[in-house]
Amino acid sequence: MDEVLLFLLQSGIAKKPIRVKTAEIGRSLGMTQQNASKRLQKLERDGLIKRSSFGITITKDGLETARKEYAILKECLEGSFFELRGTLRSGLGEGKYYLSVSHYRDRIKKALNFEPYPGTLNIELDESDRWKRDVLLAKSIFLPSFEADGRFYGGLYLHPCSIANKVCAIIFPERTHHKDNIIEIISPIFLREYLRKKDGDKVVIKVGDFL
Fold first, then answer.
1. Which of 95, 88, 146, 92 minimizes the C-alpha distance to 117?
2. What is the CATH topology of the domain spanning 82-207?
């Protein structure tokens, strides 16, 4: 994480606007006042902070950046897990088709040690958890694209997870019609039936080393 942004977070910027002089930032971080000023300007250009007569405030993008880096560091250092929460939605039928393709099924089975049920569970992530999608995508298993029977099939990213203590995985297809707030879950069983869930019901996904 950018050390100036970290300093601002430690100063309480996540809770309210703060007033701090560039000289103070420089002294705290062992840099010149001019360098501290340039670093603040870059954070502002990148859309991570805003400066006004009220002080310095952190933007939504700034908070998401901090949360992503925190989640990565926490998992690396502690081997912890986190949760994603969302709402069950009906799919487009694409998952059922592609998971019936033997090349996909064989590759997924080799990567995850289970044969996927031909269909996906589609979950619309809560707004507060959508930033976690990018964290998972960066740490996922990648299955390259391929051609079979004269047709091109896009690659897949996979990340193991669990729902209600059942091992499954989040898939991120390179080619999809879903928006970024929708994630697809695969499992060796018919998850919707096992969970006894219907559209609109809440679902909690756990991701971490306990798998």
1. 95
2. Elongation Factor Tu (Ef-tu); domain 3 (2.40.30)
pTM above 0.70, yes or no: no
Q: Which residue has the tokens 């209600």?
A: 164
Rounded to whole angstroms, the Cα distance separating 211 from 199 reads 27
CATH 2.40.30.30 positions along the chain are 82-207
> pLDDT tens for residues 32-50?
999 999 999 999 999 999 9
Residue 78, CB half-sphere, CA atoms under 13 Å: how many?
10
Nearest to 137 by CA among 71, 48, 60: 71
**Fold of the domain built from segment(s) 3-78:** Arc Repressor Mutant, subunit A (1.10.10)
* CB contact at 8 A, 49 and 62: yes
pLDDT, one tens digit per residue, over 6-23 is: 999 999 999 999 999 999
